[in-house]
Amino acid sequence: MNVPKPYLVRTGLDGILDGLQEGDPFPPERELAARFGVARETVRQALHELLVEGRIERRGRGTVVSRPKLVQPLSLRSYTEGAQRMGRTPGRLLVTWENITVDAEIAAALDVSPSARVMHLERVLLADDVRIGLESTYLPRHRFGDLEQHFDPTTSLYSAIRARGVKFGSATERIETVLPSPREAELLESTTAMPMLLLNRRSVDVDGVPIEVVRALYRGDRVAFEATLDDR
């Protein structure tokens, strides 16, 4: 049976990774091409696949083995809780905090009039100082406007909301794969060719009153999501 060279190269790279630890240098493209007896383009494509999967990463002029992806639960827990559960240090960088009017879809999701001012909070999400996500949160200002005076945007928004006595009831989420815009790629220190996981969420409290609409973009090479399912 004639096994395709790309498959042989990818299998060989997987074997090399099995013998390395996080942070170890990965062999350069030229060395790998000579080892497997293939063109450098074949090796380059296999390395790109590993980059997208988050198993290796560029560091300076070289390539090293990545640390495991941050696994986020699909639940009404905050990003902070998910990061800490994996022993990672969460952080946030404020990009935008403004009061704006939004399109009809977001206004309807928040149950506000199209002319109402909505609080928009945009932050870069960090794990151990590595940029892994870009989160845009829309909150009804008539309900959460006082956060402007009391909330530290580098901390957990969910904790601040819960501290006000608001109890999350449920959320609807949709996840899909997208490519980032040039601005998004720059904020995430990535490229427009790196696939991202786009999460759209609408959360309501225990009385069904809207809390937030969220658009969160996560680096596909840095983050994975998991859910616990049952048949009840």
UniProtKB/TrEMBL annotation:
HTH gntR-type domain mapped to chain residues: 2-68
UniProt keyword list: DNA-binding, Transcription, Transcription regulation
Record-linked SMART domains: HTH_GNTR (SM00345), UTRA (SM00866)
One Pfam family linked to the record: UTRA
A molecular-function term among this protein's GO annotations: DNA-binding transcription factor activity
Keyword Transcription regulation (UniProt): yes
GO term, biological process aspect, one: negative regulation of DNA-templated transcription
Keyword Transcription regulation: yes
Protein name, UniProt field: Transcriptional regulator, GntR family
InterPro entries for the chain: Bact_HTH_transcr_reg, Chorismate_lyase_/UTRA_dom_sf, Tscrpt_reg_HTH_GntR, UTRA, WH-like_DNA-bd_sf, WH_DNA-bd_sf
